[in-house]
Amino acid sequence: MVKTKIGFRGKQQNLYTLSRKAWGYCLDNITAISKAKKLYTPSFIADQVAKVDVAEAIPDYYARKELTVESRQQMTEAALAITNDWQLLKGYITDAYDKSVLKSKLEAAGQPYYKEATNENWDSVASLINSAKLFMQANATALSANDNMPDTFPGEFETLATAFTNLRNIYFNKEDSKENLNSAKEEADAAILKTLMPMLRLSQRVFKNDPEKRSLFVYDSLLKQVRGNQAAGLKGVITAVETKLPLENVNIKAVSISEDAATYTATTDSKGGFDMNMASGVYDVEVSSPGYQTLIVAKRKIEVGVKHRFNVKLEIAKAEVISRELLNEVVAATNATQTQQKSNGVAVLS
Q1: Torsion angle, CA of 196/200/201/204, rounded to 10 degrees?
Q2: Do 279 and 296 touch, CB atoms closer than 8 A?
Q3: pLDDT tens readout for residues 220-251
Q4: Are 56 and 192 contained in the same domain?
Q5: How many domains does the chain have?
Q6: 156, 187, 217, 335 - which has most CB atoms within 10 Å?
Q7: What global pTM score does this model have?
Q8: Which residue in 295, 286, 278, 290 sits closest to 249, CA to CA?
Q9: CATH number of the domain that 310 lies in?
Q10: Residues 6+ apart with CB under 8 A from 52
């Protein structure tokens, strides 16, 4: 969802489609609009549409996210190979040194970094690598004595370390690229809105006595056009506060606060989920289920073409809680009576 300081509401793709439509309407009515402000010329409008094209061509959130997914996975696998090899080194150190110095030797070899290195802390992996390499260089003779550490092990560890370092650099470069694209996308969207919104406001004033044309330059009307027939309404999951488990057969009822009082209803499935299509508007929403306190949410706004998330947690009704407490007290009293009767030698039938 795009939300800027200028106040645009809607999905990012809505912004581009809406902008093209708006500038198209501006061009269709250029004579009247340019009289109000000579800035608006065919060439200026063409420049604004070109800016929309440029902004849309910048990779979207999902494409930007994908930039680093593969690199992160490769780096994770490389880090795992490092920590696995470090455990081998730990074994060589344990066999090479007396217990009295073992703790300090393991620390020097990087043990303080090991735990965080296994949890994808890339700086800790780098520190683990550096400590292990320095330790092997300084203690090569002791580690190799008595056919302990293989002569090939330091070289194999170095190969894994180089692979991790290279992948880490690639990952960070892609992260930087992603952040740069994030900034570029935001700046491009802001630039679109900076010229679009004043044009809409001006055009509304120009056509204030022509409701049909004026509606072409009203934000909500444009948004409704570009969203088209996308479903609007509520969807979510209803769970119990006490158990945190999903609740089946919960009733959801939404009543419009407008004069028509349009009503929509839905019932949760076995997983506590529901999906209710509704017309855009403002509603009072009621969530109810036997044994639970009814929840009412007043004046819930449903936007055009938006399926809003509506997750609710219901509490057990007070009467139900009292009944359960009384039942527990009765059971406890009955058990106590039976225990006392048994201790007195009285036969108890269950």
Answers
A1: 170
A2: no
A3: 888 877 776 566 889 999 999 988 899 999 99
A4: yes
A5: 2
A6: 217
A7: 0.48
A8: 290
A9: 2.60.40.1120
A10: 16, 19, 20, 23, 192
